[in-house]
Amino acid sequence: YHQQASKDTVASTLVLPTSVTVTLHGVQTHLGRESFDRTYQFEQVPFPLRYGTNPHQSCMVYKPEGRSTHIGDMKIHKSGKGGFSLTNVQDISHAISTLKYMDDSAAIIVKHLVPCGVAVAADKRIGQLYQSALACDPRSAFGGTVAFNTTVDGDTAEAMMKLFLENIVAPEYTPQALEILRRNEGTKKTNNEIRIVEIPNMHTLPKFWGDDINNHLTLRSLPTGELALEIPYLSGVRSVDDLIIDPEVDGTQIQRKPTERELKDVLTAWYIAINTRSNAVIIVNNGQAIAVGTGQ
Q: How far apart are CA 264 and CA 250, in angstroms?
């Protein structure tokens, strides 16, 4: 066992490239086949990765060369203990990929690529939204990533310091919030190594049909050596007006039409489901996710 673990550790310290070139010959889409040659050049992001999925796995993240990206150029106020893991980066990506749909103030908690709390409201303070998101599944939120689409204030920062969290993401922080989140409160406090990042303009990420997806193609590698290139998911549901209200479900007549509040909750649930592994079951009430089921 120890000998094998030692071999695994040696293998994981192989030097990874600082840049990557991907050349494509033709892309098959649901609209037909488009034939072309295209080369994508990627460069290393400017922040360190502590490790990949597990501590013994080396990892490097790349972004399109010469182009600013939301995560590749995020402002890091505090990088935690030696930087980010791949899971940290993936959780941050998942969080902002959900928040990009929200027009009202919103908070989301993501744990290992699964949303475990979301709250959206135009008439609530950001601290209230955080508490509402946390109430969805406080056990899963432990060690998670909390993200907001609005400014984090001191009261919210103080509340988050009471729970062990890996990452906090927001477009902006008040000076008081940053002072609180940067505190080092001794060995008994779990958040001494919390990561604090600033990512503005989340809403500019492509999200709806017709949005520009240039340089946003999804490239995935499989453990068996293959690469999968995928067009990013774009929703055709821009507002409640795009929802289809069925007057009959499995032969049962619906007795009343949904209220405006209920339609907004359905829309919020739909946007959460986009970034929840299929098959997803999302229940939202008054802008607050009260249940998120993945892989159902």
A: 24
Q: What is the mean pLDDT of residues 2-16?
A: 54
Cα(192)–Cα(15) distance, integer angstroms: 30
CA 154 to chain centre: 23
Q: What residues contact residue 167 under an 8 Å CB cut-off, 6+ apart?
A: 80, 84, 88, 91, 92, 145, 146, 147, 194, 195, 196, 197
Residue 94: predicted pLDDT = 96
Structure tokens at 174: 């008040």
The fraction of the chain above a pLDDT of 90, given in percent, is 65
Give the separation between CA 287 and CA 196, rounded to whole angstroms: 26
- What's the chain's average pLDDT? 89
